Amino acid sequence: MKILVQGKTQGIILKSQHSINFLGTVDKKTGIISDKNHELFDKSIKDSILVFPNGVGSSVGAYTIYSIKSNNAAPLAMICQKADLTVATGCALANIPLVIVTDEEFSSLQTGQKISLDTESSNPIKFL
Q1: Domain residue limits, the chain
Q2: Of 65, 77, 78, 125, which sits most exposed with the smallest number of CB within 10 A?
Q3: Which CATH number does 2-127 carry?
C-alpha cells in the first residue's frame, strides 16, 4: 500500500471494477455518476470510500475532483490500484485521502463494507 494523500476517515465502500473519468463521468455539483455506460451509473460517490482501479482522461479531471469537494459532493477517501496524475492531483488539491493498494488488497474491498482509513496507522485500512 502506498499513501499519496494523508488523512483519516471511515465510511462505506463504493467499488467499481472500471476506471473513472472524473471530467466526463461525475456530476461535479452532485457527485452522481452520470455516464450511462459506467457500472456506477446513477450512484452517488458523496460520503463514500470510493474504490476503483484508476482514473482516466484529461488533467481537467483534477479540477473536477476539486469542484466535487467544493460542492460537498466528494467521497471521504479514494482507494485505487494505480496512481494516475489526474486523481493524485485532484485529491491533493481537495485534501481527499488517497491510497494505492495491491491487486490482492483491491480484491478484498467490496461495496457495502464499512472501513476506517488512517494513513498514519501501521495498518491503514481496517474493516469495521
Answers
A1: 2-127
A2: 125
A3: 3.50.30.10
